[in-house]
Amino acid sequence: MTLVTETHTKRSSRLPARLVPAVLGGILLVYFALPFVAFLSRTGTGNVVAGLSTPEAQVAIRNSLLTAPVSTAIATVFGVPLAYTLARSSFPGQSLVEALVILPLIVPPVVGGAMIITAVGRFTPIGAAAAAAGVPLTDSLLGVVLAQTFVAAPFVIITARAGFAAIDERLEEVSRSLGYGPVATFWNVSLPLARGAIVAGIVLTFARAIGEFGATMMVAYNPRTMPTRIWVEFIAGGIDAIFPLALALLGITLVVLAAVTRFGRIPTAVD
Amino acid sequence: MTTGSRSGGLRSTRRGFLAAGAILPLVGCLDGSADSVSVLSAGSLARTFEEYVGPAFHDETGIEVRGEYYGTNAVMRMVEDRTKHPDVIVSADATLLRDRLYEDVTDWDVEFATNSVGIGYNDETTFGQRLEKGEPWYEVALDTDDGDLTIADPNLDPLGYRAVQAFELAEAEYGLDGFREAMLERVYREPEEPQIMAGVESGGRAGAIVYRNMAVDHDVPYRDFDDAYNFSDPERNAHYATAEFTTDEEGYTAEGRAVVYNATVNDEADEPAAGRRLVNFLAHTPDVLEAAGLTVPDGMPVSEGDLPEGLEL
Fold first, then answer.
1. Do residues B133 and B236 both lie within one domain?
2. Contacts of residue A39 in chain B, CB cutoff 8 Å?
3. What is the model's pLDDT at position B299?
4. Are both B128 and B106 inside the same structural domain?
5. What is the pLDDT of residues B213-271, one digit of tens each?
6. B158 CA: distance to closest CA in chain A (Å)
7. CA B84 to CA B33: how far, in whole Å?
8. How confident is the model at residue B88 (pLDDT cuts 50, 70, 90)?
9. Residue B313, domain member (yes or no)
10. Closest to A141 (Cβ–Cβ): which among B27, B50, B202?
11. Alpha carbons B260 and A193: distance in angstroms, whole number
């Protein structure tokens, strides 16, 4: 009887316990939705198709669709191993490395862009050599990728690191004791187990990369991506002018988000 | 199950690599820098270049105009610091370009257009409706509440101190004692030029002191100031100069002077020939500039310094 009463008490106290976070979260959701609805109702959707069919808009969409996946791929290929190393090893200067990883998140994107220019800009040794070789690092799609990668890569690193850290190390030890090497263990045990976190990180990185403006503007204002085009439209034509591209950017990001979460999370035995 | 999921992970990673491999070669070839000219310009000319000059120049020459737009002060600083390396530099303040860029970056320029200052307004507000009825702007402006009217920040932006100077010149013109101070007490100072028009468009502000082409760009009703204080006529510079403004932090004193746009080609331009063609185009197509809301008065274009070969006015 005592048990039953306890269960009952727990259940009845669970409702407000769930209600409180839902209400708190709901307030934030309303705050997210309100500007969006206001924006939508102000401009209407009539000119969206026309706005998106201009050659400038199409070039911007194409450039964004080319650069953001490349930046995301680079961030993932190099960032996931880094995340694993940070989660599984300890070495001198580790906190310094971890600080370096979050540095791009801390500095405003414009400052990040200024840093990139300082390092690889047109008049630096690296930038000049690259330009002479025919692959300019500024004012090129490559420059866009550099800016996006700098700003967006920390998301996949930090998220993947948390994913690796959450794996029971004994599972990796079992793999090693069965004779698998560190690479095979990483590939066959750690990576699949951390996949949910990694996929979440990839989605965040992609969303950040395709929406990147501040650093991109400094490094490669041209060729234009969707965010730089949106900025030029805003300078030149005001709020109404930016609506079609802003909506397209949102749509693309949502589709990618949905697709990656859908296909990236194939249920596994461990799940 | 575990095996299946493992190979699924492998496959998707491989696919990612393949996708990256397919995209990377495109990165290089989409540049198309050979047929373009880069322009670093005052932000108030963004629409002029994007929608008027750029397409018209491309039609005529096949050269694409790649514009970047910042405040004129930022444009000068970026060129001086070599943060940006445009082929063509366009300033909203002819004197500023000469003060800052002569010797290091160029030794000539061409003045190609002027702009005028006035009030852009929202015609759904009382302020706008009274203007439409033909009431003098300075009387209507004195009836506004705090923050109804916007000017650019006079400490950051020539458009801002021109607004203050216009108040001062209007005060003298109409004998309105204390008009400048009364206006400064009630106007909102907007640090970012693009946001000024956004405020008027959205109805957040009743009106703003802006360049005429900004109102044309944003399709906002506009009333030009009187010639005595709209800064459109270089020949009235002596009169404009009777109004001064000293900025807060830098203590820079700006005398009133006409809004004159000038352009030059960077000594280190990647495409100097295309740059000169664009400056030439700016100097010789007044109809394109006027369609964009600028003014090309008699006597323009005017050159300063020794024009490079191939450029004639």
1. yes
2. none
3. 87
4. no
5. 989 888 899 999 999 999 999 899 999 999 999 888 777 788 899 999 999 999 999 99
6. 17
7. 16
8. very high
9. no
10. B27
11. 65
Residues B101, B71, single domain; the answer is yes
Residue in this structure with the two tokens 């030794």, named with its chain if needed: B107
The predicted pLDDT at position B15 comes to 41
The residue with greater pLDDT, B96 or A75, is: A75
Residue B311 lies in a domain: no
Please indicate, yes or no, if residue B233 is contained in any of the structural domains. yes
The CA-atom distances, in angstroms, between A147 and each of A77, A260, B72, B89, B186 are 17, 23, 25, 24, 42
Contacts of A234 in chain B (CB under 8 A): 194, 198
pLDDT at position A44: 67
Distance from CA of A239 to the nearest CA of B (A): 6
Chain B residue with CA closest to A145: the answer is: B27
From the list A134, A222, A264, the residue facing B38 with the nearest CB is A222
Split into its structural domains, chain B has a count of 2
Domain identity same for B111 and B124:
no
Beta-carbon count within 10 A of B207 CB: 29
Q: Are residues B40 and B128 in the same domain?
A: no
Residue B307 token pair: 């024009």
Indicate whether B176 and B155 sit together in one domain: yes
Q: Check whether residue B182 and residue B158 sit in a common domain.
A: yes
Within 8 A by CB and 6+ apart from B171, the residues are B177, B178, B179, B180
**B residues 6-65 near A, CB within 8 Å?**
6, 8-10, 12, 16-17, 19-20, 23-24, 26-28, 30-33, 38, 43, 46-47, 50-51
Task: Quote the minimal CA–CA distance from A1 to chain B in Å.
Answer: 43
- CATH code for the domain of B150: 3.40.190.10
Contacting residues of B for A270, CB less than 8 Å apart: 2
Q: What average pLDDT does this structure show over A243-256?
A: 90
What does the pLDDT average to over B205-217? 92
The domain in which residue B79 lies consists of: 14-115+259-305
